[in-house]
Amino acid sequence: MPVPTRLTSPSRGEEPAALATQIIGGPTGRFAAIGRRGWTYVAAMLSALASVFIALGVLQKNHCVRDGWGSPGALWRACYSDLPVGSGGAKGGTPWSVGGAGHDQPVLTAILDWIVKQLTPGGNALATQQIYFAIGTVIIVLLIALTTLATASMLRDTPWLAAHVALSPVLITAALVSFDVFGVALAAVGMALWARRHPVAAGICLGAAVMARTYPLVLIGAIVLIALRDDARAPLTRFLGGAAGAIVVCFGLAYAMGGDPLETYRAWWNQDAGYGSPAYLLTIAHHSLPATSASIIAVLGWVVAFMLGVYLTGRPAIRTQLAPLALTMLVIVLLTGKSMSVQSCMWVLPLMALVALRWREHLLWAGAEIVYFVMTWLYIAGPSNTPKAMPGAAYAFFLLIRLIAYVGIAWASWESSQDLPRDPADPYVPPTTDGWAHVPSGSSRARDEPVSRSPGRATD
After folding, report:
1. Which residues does 425 contact at the CB level (< 8 Å), separation at least 6?
2. Residue span of the structural domain in which 392 resides
3. pLDDT at residue 204 above 60?
């Protein structure tokens, strides 16, 4: 099946991409040698362009960079960020010392926050916040570049799809709100290693990703379902062993540093429904859902996501691909969760690339995200100036639009992923006997590994 032009040269095959390229000379020429420089060149180009988007994000937060992140000014200017908050308190100690991020962040994110804090020189409060934010920005640029590289490596025949990670408009608003991209980068590297048939390394990276952000558990679950369907039990066992080992090491490190890695999860269970969650609509209507009930609904959302995954992978007539399956399961988890932060949009970007989402759908979703981003801060700032604030009913409207946008990209992913090139490991082609018929959609079979490998064999 010929590869659609929109995948190999988006500026030719998709109108939004063609319009965007006008600022750099227009779409790719008819006689251009597409793909001659390989996927690594594309990944490097996209990573460089991603840094421009992060620079625009710094500009968007210029008011806070100049005057500080104090409330309510940071809310009215929509420039709030969790990063400078981590600069407070005394240096030294551990992430679980008084005021440390370990009390409300997963283990690895708390450690990253603590390391940046140690690198930040002392001084007055504003200068400390500015330097912490600058260091955090550099780290985020590098993590987005790593995510882009990992995504492009899974799309070697169509590497420009990684632009969904590097050139998404949501980078401008959401990337610098927190270190969420740390978990995204680890998850993307883990998926890339799984696609390259390194199950132990993949498990370690995805296990570490869970210790940075909990959502990669969805990706682990999707891989497990696809691997079980394809009877790839040997690599799956090694994969799960690597993931479990990474989680145990992270928990042990936290305990060794005097912390309690389970504290953040207990705190989550006792929290009320937060911003972005459908359950928060009841809070707006002054009928708040009890914290325990919201927690149970969130857990049931995970159960529903995995049950749907079992159904989709069990259909005899259709071989479900990993990327749309993972994206659909993740959207279900997001929509049933206790909160859905403005930076949650970062989680879906690599999956958007892997399902070859059309830029039309991406930009519609991104538009909903950016509008919701602004409206959220205007709503939260309400108590400081009620006449100026976003009314609860209006905020609820934009919240619903955002939820619909997520349903839309999950729905569109099943159609768009059908355009991806297929190799002997992809759906609708008889699987090989090597136990690796579950390579993510869009991945090219490793060119340095023959098709006829012995059953269950995998490299580390």
Report:
1. 431, 432, 436, 437, 438, 439, 443, 445
2. 37-419
3. yes
